[in-house]
Please model this.
Amino acid sequence: MRFAKLSERDRALVARATALLKTGESEISSVSAGLRTRNDREYHGLCVDPASTTEGMCAEFSAIGAMVTGGDRKIDTMVAITRKGRPAYRVLPPCGRCRELARGLGNPYIIVQRPGADGESLTKVKLSELMPIDWSSRSK
Ligand SMILES: [Zn+2]
Model:
């Protein structure tokens, strides 16, 4: 797997997604997502996960919905932040459903937490590396 270093813009994206979660978290929102498009616009979203139902919507879906509503179609870089676990406010890799959705909107970098000899560090990896065989490849 080929990992890439985060840019300053990537770190700012992580910081803004974390800030959104800290201000917007609630009993139905424990994850935020941020994405940057290929034309340098940013969109963010919170998950919607009420305990009263088995249905829920990932934060990445919210951010992608905002992006499409804003007129953009291609993701350059995406990150999700969770308040659950230790440490709180850590990067969360996208679930399979979000990977499939994002793959249909480009082959973005996904910011991930990578374990290493000197602790975990933030890095990024192309979505095609996280999901080498996607749904769309079935029809090619
Ligand atoms: Zn998801």
Summary: The helical segments are 8-24, 59-69, 96-103, 127-130. Residues 3-130 form a domain with the Cytidine Deaminase; domain 2 fold (CATH 3.40.140.10). Residues 58, 60, 94-95, 97-98 surround zinc ion (CB under 6 Å).
